[in-house]
Structures are given as C-alpha cells and as structure tokens.
Amino acid sequence: MLLLSGGTGFIGRSLLRHLGEAGLPVRTLLRPSRRSPDLPRGITTEVALAGLTDRRGLRAAMVGVARVIHLSAPEGMRATAENIAGEAEGARNLAEAAADAGVRRGVFLSHLGADRASAYPSLRAAAIAEEHLRKSGVPFSVLRAAVSYGPGDVFTTSLAMLLAVSPFVFPIPGDGKTLLQPIWVDDLARCIAWSLDDPSLIGATVELGGPEHLTLREVLGLITQATGTTRMLAPIRPPYLRALAWWMERALPDSPATTSWIDYLASNRTTDLNSVSRVFRLQPARMERRLDYLRGRNWGWELPKRQLRRARGRMG
Which candidate, 96, 130, 173, 225, has a CA 20 to 30 Å from the CA of 86? Predict the structure, then answer.
C-alpha cells in the first residue's frame, strides 16, 4: 500500500491519476473537512482522514503502508503564512509515523531553491521539512521541483485572471527578467511516480524543471497569446507589489496573488535544463505547446467566480 499526502492538490490530482492508471493501491491522506475532497474522477483510492498535526490519525493511516509520497509542501506561488508555519511540523509528524510503521520507501516533493538560510519563509520551511524526512530513518528521495503548470494550477491561471482584470497595464516585479523553468504537471507526476522504483534515488536530492529557461516577461507573453489578452507590462519595485499582494490576501477570500507569489518571483528559479531527461529519460513538454487549457475562457469572470466559491466553502 502507498500513502499519498497532498493528493487533493493540483499536483496530487495528476499524480493520483498516474498511480491509478498503473494499478497501484493508494491510500490518500485527507484532512477532515466539511467540503467534498477534490479527487480526480474515475480513480479508486482508499481514504484516511487525518491532518498532518494529528499524530494518532497519522499512525492509523500508516497501518499496512510500505511506501509514502508527501506532496504537502505548499505550492510556491500559493503559500500562506498559515500553511508555511505548519509545513515543517507536518513533515516531522509524518516522518515519525512512517518510521514507527516500518515504511520502506518515501518521496518528498519540495521546492527548487529550498534552503534553511533562505530569506523566503516557504523555502526555509521546505528545507526544514526535508531535514525531518531525511532523519526519520525511512529511505526518502527529495525532488525539488520548479513551478508546475497545467489545468487548475495556481501559476498560469492566476496570472491569466490578473491579466484579464488589469486595466491596460499589468504590473510586474522589477524588470521582469527573473528566470523561471516551468514544468508540465503530468511530466512532474511521472517523475514522482517513477522515483519510487528507482533505487539510485534513495537518499538523493534531485532538482527538476522544464526544458527551457523563460523570463517572467516571456511567460506572460505565452499566457497573453493563449488567452488573447493584450497588456502593457509595467515594472514596479517589488516592495510596492508585495504591499498590494498583502492587501489582496486580506481583501479577497481566494486571492490570485500572495506575498509568497512576489517572493517566488524575486529571484531566478532554475536548474539544469536536462535534469528531467538525464534522471528519468523523459523529454518534458515545452510550455508553449501545453497552454490550450487557457484558451476560450473568460478569465475576467473567473476571478469573481473563484471568490464566490471560496466564500461559500467557508460558510459551509
């Protein structure tokens, strides 16, 4: 049995589909909630109800589990103060429960740039989580991934919404030349699934990214081309954008921009262009060929729709 933590997230849903198609028995760890879990349709999975702060629930979820995949590190552009603070503690609790249950193999999806000395809270938390898992005694692999994209993501859909509602100009941090290396979510999911059966990755830390280094300006150009939106890009000093994102986080139930979003774009987020093909013998998709999901939608309307859904979820 394989226990998946983070299976209802954007990457987790794609990974669940891959694991299900491969016929692997999966138990998905779900935090208790009044809302129905956002699991992929047509995929069979066992369910264990426990949050990462529930040590007793985690021990129960580990019964009969031989392998663990932990995806609960908050996605870089959607990390909030609340889930950043809980990331390290959750990883420690998961690591202890896995060790006590005799789990034989683990994979942790971390962030590219994770570093305990980082100036950015989400990257510090990811690095501390990595340490807890490595010290658990369970043979873990750590995959540090660049920002991922695909239908239902945080990255491209948030940018599409912000571009759509921005009047004529779109503010970007600095000169917009920060380098990113977006990776298609299905490619990342394959790498995570395949790493379970690769003994050469036991104890290893691997950096993963897409097949091209793109500036933020280039990424925005691909998104505007896909959505049919035309905007002038206006360089703004990051502290001012961070203040705007701070206000949006407090004004909107589900803000498409957070302070972590600005932090993520403050410096280059890249690795070796051949990282995926070298380790997994997989040629990852180029971004311009995978943005069809952005076409034909009214992204200006998607923003208020998302706020309504989140507000209703909080009330329910």
Answer: 173
